[in-house]
């Protein structure tokens, strides 16, 4: 323990330096004058507490590590039933969940359904980014830019050309993919970290352009009055717009505003199910295999005639297109979009979802998306600390469990005895 | 002289000022990259923290009644450098060292997580509003024709140039003359080999983060005084710009970072002269993409040879 | 000239101040096993990296089937039919053995996304063909029983054989092996010997070999090129090389 004393003192000193000025003293702007005030005793006791904790942890590092090794690592996969049973139960479970997804909204409040719709958007974004980060191992820090491209595609096409949601959905995906392709091509030839910083920059640039191209995008004021999706041309408004019919009039039922909410939710469910299906298929396709191979050994891939740039680009573009779909739906749901919705914070949240869920694990990402959207709603105070925690979660997850809470392997093809 | 010429001259002066601070921040990116081959995403936040520390110290000392401005500024600089270096060290210890040797994606994610964490940590501790400091150093030299256009170089700008020059010279001397500097260069050449030769590479890597953070803090103090306002989000753009500067000059190359910073600063200032000023960020970013497209090694960088 | 499968002339590779390869010439004829030997650090692997496109040669010309390929990217060269192994085995260790072989057939499988999403008949057929080809090659290298095992769990000798099988499923014209016998025991080496000869007989390919194991080189090579300090030293049949005094001095004599 004596040997640990100096490093422990050092670490405690570092902690004190890290906290003393920036937390212990606060800058206060009172009109034109700036003053400093010492933090209250509470804050200082927190600082002291942190310093002591760091000191003790460093001092007792070895005994603590020994203790940790005796603690069993939480292994979520171990809780699942064995493989045979699982494979037999799986289709039933999936069917049950899908039916539940469709029945559930008719039994709960409007607010809950609305929140579920928002969650589904994040599920879609998480799954899309998971292709890029989890499958292809590329860090995309400007994922929100493609989300913005999708949202603005629908908003603008609907405003200027009156195109419907269903027409715009594929266009939004395609356009986002095109942006991904144009951006990815020059960068993906280079080392991975360049992609991270270029996408980071791209995310900002898209936002700046949207903010400043006022006569088209409305600048910071955004675009409002975006049409909601229709059910084969049936609208969910109280009154039909010209030449259209409303849902309640067509079926001869009373108008209820919750129909619209439920319909949007169902559209989101369909989109998410489609996303899951596509990603599941692609994982089993040659390209999914190539992503994994590329993550393992790029040089070997090249020696076998795989073009790394093209393979990475396919993941990047595909991920972008899902963000485009999600963006298009987001614009339709909100009815109003502005550059405010597409800040770096959004990118960070989506990345946190992927990281928490486990890079490459679809189920993990879905659960993480649900947790990350619902938690802030449950505890409003949480909102204030949300980003701090997301940042912390990313660091801690990578240090403690880089494969995520629910790691999952890509299903491998097997050679059957013939 | 012609009005436009004078106007461009003024923009050049402004550009060189901003550019030299970019260069200071870019050093941090380039040195870390040169040794461990990774981008330190939290570097921009370290710069931001340096600025906050400087503000706190300056205001604190002024409130305590320390009257002499040079002493206040010097103390602010020292405090900012110490605190920011500590942050640089902490970032390395927490987000990079435990993950050394693993897949490259992992430390990238911890670093970006660290960046988000630090940004919000300052936001929670100091508030998210803009904080403005009274102008401490005013005045300057003016020339040109008052009837047409007056070009001015403020004292603050001269100070920025002077301090940058001193900091850069000190760094150059340290790298080329001192024993630690030699160890740094050895690590940049071949980390594993240097380790085998009995040099504590962990120490050298930590040192690189610390030097980078210290220079970022210097830039933070200078820019904080120059602009007079700060908020917790300034590290984001500054980091992005400085990284662009590092890539422009050739990442891994220290003279490259200096050159890249100056070029970027001037380009931005000239853009701002003729277009709406928001577009200068767009131009900076486009420059980054163009460089990566046509000359990924930057102006002074050496091509990397892949080890097969 | 055109009867040569691979024609390397005046190859130069410079790293900064170091001239690693200086004027190397190689001619590989169809169905020939051609070895490149030389002391450690002679530049053999650098020559390999230049031919396979991992380095951009500083000078000289490389022609494959009469087509100039110097400076092309690695994957394009591989697509032309020059496929290599590595000095240190580079398998996809976390993937199964059979999947290693499927990745190598990526070019044959590249049907469009839509076909894969709906599992169209042609997509299924290609998948099946790829599986069959992979199984065939596993049989050839005697690894069929390990098909569904993770590649990283194989023994070193098995990993070497898998790497060769992985090259062969791409249906190459020239197989380039970088020290395939390194780390193998004598029995495994002689198996490798047999495998290389059989590939030449049955698959109608040429083999370019870098090797330290003199027994292997002398036993199976049709032609040998010796390089020393980046420059060509001698070339000829194994008998000629064995008798060449310069070679003995530079290489055999010292080891």
Automatic annotation (TrEMBL), chain A:
Subcellular location: Cell inner membrane
Organism: Marinobacterium weihaiense
Name of the protein in question: High-affinity branched-chain amino acid ABC transporter permease LivM
Stored CDD domains: TM_PBP1_LivM_like
Keyword Membrane in record: yes
InterPro entries assigned: ABC_transp_permease (IPR001851), LivHM_N (IPR021807), LivM-like (IPR043428)
Record membrane topology: Multi-pass membrane protein
A Pfam match: BPD_transp_2
Top-level taxon in the UniProt lineage: Bacteria
Keywords: Cell membrane, Membrane, Transmembrane, Transmembrane helix
Transmembrane helix in keyword set: yes
Transmembrane segments: 46-64, 92-109, 138-157, 163-185, 261-279, 313-336, 348-375, 387-403
Lineage per the UniProt record: Bacteria, Pseudomonadati, Pseudomonadota, Gammaproteobacteria, Oceanospirillales
Ranges of residues in domain High-affinity branched-chain amino acid transport system permease LivHM N-terminal: 4-104
Main location: membrane
From TrEMBL, chain B:
Family, per entry: Belongs to the binding-protein-dependent transport system permease family. LivHM subfamily.
Highest taxon of source: Bacteria
PANTHER family, per database record: BRANCHED-CHAIN AMINO ACID TRANSPORT SYSTEM PERMEASE PROTEIN LIVH, HIGH-AFFINITY BRANCHED-CHAIN AMINO ACID TRANSPORT SYSTEM PERMEASE PROTEIN LIVH
Organism: Marinobacterium weihaiense
The keyword Transport appears for this protein: yes
Subcellular location: Cell inner membrane
Protein name: High-affinity branched-chain amino acid ABC transporter permease LivH
Lineage: Bacteria, Pseudomonadati, Pseudomonadota, Gammaproteobacteria, Oceanospirillales
Entry keyword set: Amino-acid transport, Cell inner membrane, Cell membrane, Membrane, Transmembrane, Transmembrane helix, Transport
Topology term for the membrane: Multi-pass membrane protein
Family matches, as NCBIfam families: PRK10740.1
TrEMBL record, chain C:
Keywords for this protein: Amino-acid transport, ATP-binding, Nucleotide-binding, Transport
Domain ABC transporter residues, every copy: 6-254
Pfam families: ABC_tran, BCA_ABC_TP_C
InterPro entries, alphabetized: AAA+_ATPase (IPR003593), ABC_AA/LPS_Transport (IPR051120), ABC_transporter-like_ATP-bd (IPR003439), ABC_transporter-like_CS (IPR017871), BCA_ABC_TP_C (IPR032823)
Superkingdom of the organism of origin: Bacteria
MF annotations from Gene Ontology: ATP binding
Protein's UniProt keywords contain Nucleotide-binding: yes
Matching PANTHER family: CONSERVED COMPONENT OF ABC TRANSPORTER FOR NATURAL AMINO ACIDS-RELATED, HIGH-AFFINITY BRANCHED-CHAIN AMINO ACID TRANSPORT ATP-BINDING PROTEIN LIVG
Family under the similarity heading: Belongs to the ABC transporter superfamily.
Protein name: High-affinity branched-chain amino acid ABC transporter ATP-binding protein LivG
Gene that specifies this protein: livG
């Amino acid at each position: 323990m004596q040997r640990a004393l100096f490093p422990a003192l050092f670490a405690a000193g570092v902690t004190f330096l890290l906290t003393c000025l920036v937390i212990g003293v606060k800058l206060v702007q009172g009109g034109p004058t700036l003053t400093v005030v010492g933090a209250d005793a509470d804050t200082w006791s927190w600082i002291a507490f942190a310093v002591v904790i760091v000191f003790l942890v460093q001092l007792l590092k070895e005994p603590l590590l020994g203790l940790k090794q005796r603690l069993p690592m939480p292994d979520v996969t171990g809780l699942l039933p064995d493989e045979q049973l699982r494979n037999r139960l799986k289709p039933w479970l999936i069917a049950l969940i899908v039916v539940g997804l469709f029945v559930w909204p008719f039994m709960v409040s409007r607010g809950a359904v609305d929140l579920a719709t928002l969650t589904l958007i994040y599920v879609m974004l998480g799954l899309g980014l998971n292709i890029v980060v989890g499958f292809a191992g590329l860090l995309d820090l400007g994922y929100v830019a493609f989300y913005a491209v999708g949202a603005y595609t629908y908003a603008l096409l609907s405003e200027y050309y009156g195109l419907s949601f269903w027409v715009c959905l594929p266009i939004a995906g395609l356009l986002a993919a095109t942006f991904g392709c144009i951006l990815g091509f020059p960068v993906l030839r280079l080392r991975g970290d360049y992609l991270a910083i270029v996408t980071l920059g791209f995310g900002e640039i898209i936002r700046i352009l949207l903010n400043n191209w006022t006569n088209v995008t409305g600048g910071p004021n955004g675009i409002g009055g975006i049409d909601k999706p229709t059910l084969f041309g049936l609208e969910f408004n109280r009154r039909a717009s010209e030449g259209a019919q409303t849902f309640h009039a067509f079926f001869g039922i009373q108008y209820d505003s919750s129909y619209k909410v439920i319909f949007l939710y169902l559209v989101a469910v369909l989109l998410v199910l489609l996303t899951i299906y596509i990603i599941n298929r692609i994982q089993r396709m040659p390209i999914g295999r190539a992503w994994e191979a590329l993550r393992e050994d790029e040089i070997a891939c090249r020696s076998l005639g795989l073009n790394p740039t093209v393979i990475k680009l396919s993941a990047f573009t595909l991920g972008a297109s899902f963000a485009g779909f999600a963006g298009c739906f987001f614009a339709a749901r909100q009815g109003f979009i502005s550059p405010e919705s597409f800040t770096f914070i959004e990118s960070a949240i989506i990345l946190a979802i992927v990281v928490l869920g486990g890079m490459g694990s679809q189920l993990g990402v879905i659960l993480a998306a649900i947790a990350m959207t619902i938690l802030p709603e449950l505890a409003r105070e949480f909102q204030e600390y949300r980003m701090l925690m997301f940042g912390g979660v990313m660091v801690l997850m990578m240090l403690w469990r880089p494969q995520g809470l629910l790691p999952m392997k890509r299903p491998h093809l097997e050679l059957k005895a013939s | 002289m012609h009005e436009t010429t004078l106007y461009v001259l003024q923009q050049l002066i402004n550009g060189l000022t901003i550019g030299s601070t970019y260069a200071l921040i870019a050093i941090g990116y380039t040195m870390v990259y040169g040794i461990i081959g990774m981008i330190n995403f939290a570097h921009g936040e370290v710069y931001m923290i340096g600025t906050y520390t400087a503000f706190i110290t300056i205001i604190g000392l002024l409130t305590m009644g320390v009257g002499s401005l040079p002493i206040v500024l010097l103390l602010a600089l020292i405090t900012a450098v110490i605190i920011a270096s500590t942050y640089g060290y902490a970032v390395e210890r927490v987000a990079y060292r435990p993950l050394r040797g693993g897949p490259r994606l992992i430390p990238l994610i911890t670093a970006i997580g660290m960046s988000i964490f630090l940004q919000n940590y300052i936001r929670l501790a100091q508030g998210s509003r803009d904080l403005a400091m009274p102008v401490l150093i005013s005045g300057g030299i003016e020339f040109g024709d008052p009837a047409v256009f007056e070009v001015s170089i403020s004292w603050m700008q001269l100070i920025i140039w002077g301090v940058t020059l001193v900091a850069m010279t000190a760094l150059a001397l340290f790298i080329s003359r001192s024993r630690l500097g030699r160890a740094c260069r050895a690590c940049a050449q071949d980390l594993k080999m240097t380790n085998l030769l009995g040099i504590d590479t962990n120490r050298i890597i930590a040192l690189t983060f610390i030097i980078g953070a210290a220079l970022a803090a210097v830039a933070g103090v200078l820019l904080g005084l120059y602009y007079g306002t700060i908020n917790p989000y300034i590290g984001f753009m500054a980091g992005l710009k400085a990284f662009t500067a590092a890539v422009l000059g050739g990442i891994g190359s220290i003279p490259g970072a200096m050159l890249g910073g100056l070029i970027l600063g001037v380009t931005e200032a000239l853009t701002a002269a003729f277009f709406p000023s928001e577009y200068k960020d767009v131009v900076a970013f486009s420059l980054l993409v163009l460089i990566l497209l046509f000359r990924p090694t930057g102006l002074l960088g050496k091509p990397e040879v892949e080890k097969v | 000239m055109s009867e040569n499968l691979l024609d390397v002339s005046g190859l130069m590779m410079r790293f900064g101040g170091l001239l690693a390869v200086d004027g190397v010439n190689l001619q590989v004829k169809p169905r020939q096993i051609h070895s490149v030997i030389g002391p450690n650090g002679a530049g053999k692997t650098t020559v390999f990296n230049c031919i396979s496109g991992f380095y951009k040669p500083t000078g000289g010309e490389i022609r494959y089937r009469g087509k100039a390929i110097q400076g092309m990217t690695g994957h394009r060269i591989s697509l032309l039919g020059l496929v290599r192994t590595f000095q240190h085995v580079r398998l996809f260790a976390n993937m199964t053995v059979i999947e290693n072989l499927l990745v190598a057939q990526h070019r044959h499988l590249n049907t469009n996304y839509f076909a894969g999403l709906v599992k169209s008949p042609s997509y299924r057929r290609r998948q099946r063909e790829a599986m069959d080809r992979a199984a065939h090659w596993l049989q050839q290298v005697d690894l069929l029983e390990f098909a569904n095992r993770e590649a990283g769990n194989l023994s070193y000798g098995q990993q070497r054989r898998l790497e060769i099988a992985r090259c062969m499923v791409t249906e190459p014209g020239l197989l380039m092996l970088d020290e395939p016998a390194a780390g193998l025991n004598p029995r495994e080496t002689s198996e490798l010997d047999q495998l290389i000869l059989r590939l030449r007989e049955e698959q109608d390919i040429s083999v370019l070999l870098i090797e330290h194991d003199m027994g292997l080189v002398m036993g199976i090579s049709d032609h040998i090129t010796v390089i020393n300090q980046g420059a060509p030293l001698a070339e000829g049949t194994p008998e000629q090389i064995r008798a060449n005094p310069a070679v003995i001095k530079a290489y055999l004599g010292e080891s």
